[in-house]
Amino acid sequence: MLYDPGVISYRELAETFFSIHDPTQTDGQGPDIGSQYLSVLFYGSSEEKETARTLIAILEERSMDMAASLRPRVLFWEAEECHQDYYRKRGIRPLCGLDRSIF
């Protein structure tokens, strides 16, 4: 799936990103520990980077100790088929997924 700013703005996408996981956890997500589970928000332009920085600043003002990092968007390798739609294929709920409105 490709990001289409005509469908959803980068700000909306980033707000959703911060709302569905714990961007304050430093060593992974929920029970999944390791560098492959860290909270990272990617940006493709200086405008997107500034939007992400603004959102992080808002959350920090709300006393959230942010662990999420920002990185430039680079070539993305899609995960192997066995990792696609992981929860749907197994009929289970995500272990660390949140669904909260923080903005």
Flag low-confidence runs: none
Rounded to an integer in angstroms, the radius of gyration calculated over CA atoms is 14 Å
The biggest sheet, with number of strands, parallel, antiparallel or mixed sense and barrel status, is: 2 strands, antiparallel
> What is the 3D shape?
globular
According to DSSP, the number of beta strands is 4
Order of helices and strands: HEEEHEH
Q: How far do the termini sit from each other?
A: 25 Å
By helix and strand content, what is the structural category?
alpha+beta
Return the average pLDDT rounded to an integer: 88
Determine the fraction of residues in helical runs and give it as a percent range: 25-40%
Figure out the total of helices.
3
Portion in strands: 5-15%
Largest sheet strand order = 1-2
Note down, in words, how this protein is organized:
Helix 2 links the parallel strand 3 (40-43) and strand 4. The two termini are 25 Å apart. The longest helix has 16 residues, at 46-61. The protein is α+β, with helices and mostly antiparallel strands and 103 residues long. It has a two-stranded antiparallel sheet. It has a two-stranded parallel sheet with strand order 3-4. The chain is built from three helices and four strands; from the N terminus they run H-E-E-E-H-E-H.
Furnish the topology, listing elements before pairings:
Elements: H1 10-19, E1 28-29, E2 32-33, E3 40-43, H2 46-61, E4 69-72, H3 86-90
Parallel strand pairs: 3-4
Antiparallel strand pairs: 1-2
Helix pairs in contact: 1-2
